[in-house]
TrEMBL record:
Pfam families the UniProt entry points to: Cytochrom_C
Name of the protein this chain belongs to: C-type cytochrome
Cleaved signal peptide residues: 1-22
Entry keywords, A to Z: Electron transport, Heme, Iron, Metal-binding, Signal, Transport
Length: 140
């Protein structure tokens, strides 16, 4: 009698559970994932690693060069868009300090080729001189 009652209770409950289960288990017809169709955005190019020239003595000229845009066009030991600073140092002497500082402020071309150096109008002549002093200190 007891088992009869149990069966009477369990069977409908079980079938209910099974029924609701089988309902959720119906596999949906695979639909193309709309997000998969979207073309992935082009990978963002990593910005070039900032050029850091060690400055153990705290050279003001070098510091200014690091803080300005100079190193996007110049490297110390190899030509980039502009001549390397070592080439510049080899070509000039302290007598050219004033002219070179003015050239950094005004920009210009012709001494190394046809690519012009951008002017640096916000730069003071004094700061430009400090930069040139650093560059000339690279003379070997
Ligand atoms: C847009 C690129 C660019 C930037 C930025 C730039 N330069 Fe130049 N630089 C050049 C080019 C190109 C030349 C060669 C110009 C020429 O042929 O007379 C040059 C030449 C020079 C020269 C030699 C000038 C001569 O007449 O021989 C010095 C010194 C110099 N740059 C220093 C600097 C300093 C310091 C800065 C940062 C304040 C700087 N440059 C930023 C491109 C650049």
């Amino acid at each position: 009698m007891k088992t009869q009652l149990l069966k009477a209770l369990v069977i409908p409950v079980l079938s209910l559970v099974l029924f609701s289960c089988s309902k959720t288990e119906t596999t949906p017809i695979p639909q193309p994932d709309p997000t998969a169709l979207q073309t992935a955005p082009p990978p963002v190019e990593a910005p070039p690693a900032p050029v850091v020239i060690p400055n153990p003595t705290g050279d003001k000229g070098l510091q200014l060069i690091q803080e300005t845009d100079c190193l996007t066009c110049h490297k110390v030991d190899s030509k980039l868009i502009g001549p390397s600073y070592q080439e510049v140092a080899a070509k000039y002497t302290d007598a050219d300090l004033d002219m070179l500082a003015q050239k950094i402020v005004d920009g210009g071309k012709g001494n190394w080729g046809d690519i012009p150096m951008a002017p640096h109008t916000g730069l003071s002549k004094e700061d430009a001189k400090l930069m040139v002093k650093y560059i000339l200190s690279l003379k070997k």
